[in-house]
């Protein structure tokens, strides 16, 4: 009870700690609404934007002259408005260059409006200094080759102002209305882009490295979970390439810009479904509740339903639906990790429940960092524009480590199995050699003893026929021959299954023949049902069993008592068979010990006055099982009784 209470307290403490970490992360990283000054000026010294504001155009019918006079909402940092059918207008105050750069600025000095993320449909720039000119356009719907400043981001170029000016951006997109804009000098923009390209290259290289490991591991193990991880990584690489802008850059000229935009949008639900599908495979071996696992598959199917919605032309609705799914599955994965079973003693080594929770906690945070701002529920710092990429990077690193841990333990277990197998093969080989040597020894011993017994038989035969020693000598020789025969037969049956010579055996005739072969003075009473059916069995082996039982009953009976033998037809476990019962009054050796009766070489403490090998009952029980029957010891009040049953 105390242990269970301690475990409950431990779990409760872990949940509280995780909840506090999540809340602290939200407060410090996201700066929840009301904690930041909406009019805060950018802290980037290279950014020439001093103020930002936005305006909602629900009907998408307003022009630049109309919106200038309307009420604007100030903001700082990235703008996240969620999924909306409205047009978003953005007003930016651009400051002139400072110091000597300002005095030397002219129409040839250019600023680059560097806009993130790259998957925005259309961004239009309205410069008040050129009211009669059409707006400059950027976005996924525009051919990348037409850009004046080409990079992996969305960019627009304007002349550096001599005095502060306010420019307007019009954002129209079917994805979430999230955008972060910086106004950088051309040279500064190139330097920042080079740094960005290094980071993007490192991210893509890492994802490809993990993918290469997964492919190599799958070629060796062919495990489904590793195959699912390969699919996870392939989609993660494609998703990262699309969000980083590689598709726009390298597919431009091969595909029209709207087609590239559509491919990028379709990767969102495909990525979500693949992530859920892999986690279903990964968590199955931890035996979480079946209902929760079915919910995971249901979410994966729901994510794929976004694709036909997109093809129907409802791109915004499909992306919003996918974002809701991305918001739902992190707590489900955490719940599955929490409800998973810890490895039991004797199970193959695997991750514990606590390790699973620690794995899925950071993955859940980064998923929420992407989904919640996309829905407009939380603001975000600039890096959160690529939180989906951060999730792919973090998840790849964590899952790579988890699968490596799993693979290492699987390899260790495999090596142990191989080692045990080799040891077993060595023991079998040693046992085989031992048996071979034993068989050779028994063959040699049997041959030598048989020759010696033949010589002894001739020598005893030379004695006077009336001599008492002559009869004793013959009986001793017969006993030794019987011991040799039993040892030889026992070794042969233990070494390999004998080839059974199945035929119809008349049990009545066999019992009478065996009784007639017993020595003079043997009192055996046969009681048999009339017209017993023949038994399909091996006559020679059955004769060995009955002969041993006859010999055992005669040897250990009370003096001058009669051995009772009965044969009848009996059914057992729905099978028809024959039952032979041999009983005798216990003699000086007493009753046998039921626990040791059928053990090899065992003889009772009071049976040593009679010659024997301790093999008769052991051998009879072994042969009975080989014939498909059973030999039991079923004592009665006054008798020692053995019962043999064989199927007909």
Would you write up a description of this structure?
The two termini are 58 Å apart. The protein is 52% helix and 16% strand. The strands form four sheets. The chain has a six-stranded antiparallel sheet, with no helix packed on it. A five-stranded mixed sheet has the order 12-14-15-17-16. It folds into four domains: 1-30; 49-191, Immunoglobulin-like, CATH 2.60.40.2380; 193-419, Rhopdopsin 7-helix transmembrane proteins, CATH 1.20.1070; 498-647, 2-Layer Sandwich (Heat Shock Protein 90). With 648 residues, it is of the alpha+beta class.
Features:
4 domains, 5-stranded mixed beta sheet, 16% strand, alpha+beta, single chain, rod-shaped, 648 residues, 6-stranded antiparallel beta sheet, Rhopdopsin 7-helix transmembrane proteins, Immunoglobulin-like
Strand order of the largest sheet: 2-1-4-9-6-7
Number of helices: 16
The backbone outline, from C-alpha atoms, is rod-shaped
Q: Which architecture of the largest domain per CATH? A: Up-down Bundle
Low-confidence stretches: 1-12, 21-42, 102-107
Helix/strand structural class: alpha+beta
CATH class of the largest domain: Mainly Alpha
CATH fold assignment of the largest domain: Rhopdopsin 7-helix transmembrane proteins
Radius of gyration: 46 Å
The description of the largest β-sheet is:
6 strands, antiparallel
Strand fraction band? 15-25%
Provide mean pLDDT, rounded: 79
| Approximate helicity band | 40-55%
Task: Report, as a whole number of angstroms, the end-to-end distance.
Answer: 58 Å
For the secondary structure, the number of strands is 17
Question: How many domains make up the 3D coordinates?
Answer: 4
């Amino acid at each position: 009870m105390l242990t269970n209470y301690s475990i409950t307290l431990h779990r409760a403490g872990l949940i509280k700690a995780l909840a506090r970490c999540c809340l602290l992360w939200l407060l410090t990283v996201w700066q929840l609404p009301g904690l930041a000054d909406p009019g805060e000026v950018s802290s980037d010294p290279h950014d020439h934007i001093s103020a930002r504001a936005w305006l909602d155009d629900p009907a998408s019918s307003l022009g630049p002259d109309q919106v200038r006079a309307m009420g604007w909402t100030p903001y700082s940092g990235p703008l996240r408005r969620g999924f909306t059918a409205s047009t978003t207008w953005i007003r930016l105050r651009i400051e002139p260059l400072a110091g000597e750069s300002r005095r030397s600025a002219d129409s040839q000095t250019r600023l680059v409006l560097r806009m993130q993320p790259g998957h925005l449909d259309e961004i239009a720039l309205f410069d008040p200094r050129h009211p009669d000119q059409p707006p400059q356009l950027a976005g996924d719907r525009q051919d990348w080759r037409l850009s004046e400043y080409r990079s992996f981001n969305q960019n627009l170029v304007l002349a550096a102002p001599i005095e502060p000016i306010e420019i307007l951006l019009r954002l129209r997109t079917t994805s979430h209305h999230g955008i972060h804009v910086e106004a950088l000098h051309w040279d500064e923009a190139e330097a920042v882009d080079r740094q960005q390209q290094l980071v993007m290259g490192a991210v893509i290289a890492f994802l490809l490295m993990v993918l290469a490991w997964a492919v190599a591991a799958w070629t060796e193990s062919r495990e489904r979970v590793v195959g699912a991880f390969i699919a996870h990584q392939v989609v993660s690489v494609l998703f990262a390439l699309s969000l980083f802008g590689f598709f726009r850059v390298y597919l431009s000229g091969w595909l029209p810009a709207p087609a590239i935009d559509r491919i990028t949008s379709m990767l969102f639900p495909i990525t979500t479904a693949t992530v859920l599908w892999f986690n279903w495979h990964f968590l199955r071996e931890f035996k979480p509740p079946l209902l929760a696992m079915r919910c995971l598959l249901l979410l994966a199917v729901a994510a794929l339903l976004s694709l036909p919605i997109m093809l129907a032309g409802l791109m915004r609705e499909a992306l919003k639906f996918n974002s809701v799914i991305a918001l739902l599955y992190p707590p489900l994965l955490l719940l599955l990790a929490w409800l998973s079973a810890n490895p039991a003693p004797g199970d193959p080594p695997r991750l514990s429940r606590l390790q699973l929770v620690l794995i899925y906690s950071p993955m859940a945070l980064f998923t929420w960092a992407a989904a919640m701002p996309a829905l407009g529920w939380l603001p975000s710092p600039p890096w959160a524009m690529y939180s989906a990429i951060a999730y792919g990077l973090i998840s790849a690193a964590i899952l790579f480590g988890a699968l490596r841990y799993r693979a290492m333990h699987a390899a260790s277990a495999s090596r142990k199995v191989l080692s045990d197998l080799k040891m077993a093969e060595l023991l079998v080989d040693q046992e085989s050699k031992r048996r071979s040597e034993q068989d050779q020894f028994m063959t040699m011993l049997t041959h030598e003893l048989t020759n010696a017994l033949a010589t002894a038989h001739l020598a005893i035969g030379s004695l006077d026929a009336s001599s008492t020693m002559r009869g004793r000598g013959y009986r001793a020789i017969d006993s030794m021959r019987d011991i040799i025969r039993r040892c030889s037969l026992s070794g042969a049956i233990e070494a390999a299954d004998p080839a059974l010579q199945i035929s119809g055996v008349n049990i009545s005739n066999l019992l009478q023949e065996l009784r007639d072969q017993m020595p003079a003075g043997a009192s055996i009473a046969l009681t048999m049902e009339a017209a017993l059916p023949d038994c399909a069995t091996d006559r020679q082996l059955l004769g060995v069993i009955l002969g041993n039982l006859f010999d055992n009953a005669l040897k250990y009976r009370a003096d001058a008592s009669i051995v009772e033998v009965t044969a009848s037809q009996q059914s057992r476990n729905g099978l028809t068979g024959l039952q032979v019962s041999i009983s005798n009054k216990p003699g000086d050796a007493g009753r046998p010990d039921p626990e040791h009766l059928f053990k090899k070489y065992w003889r009772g403490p009071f049976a040593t006055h009679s010659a024997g090998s301790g093999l008769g009952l052991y051998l009879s029980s072994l042969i009975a099982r080989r014939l498909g029957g059973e030999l039991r010891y079923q004592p009665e009040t006054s008798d020692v009784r053995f019962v043999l049953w064989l199927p007909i």
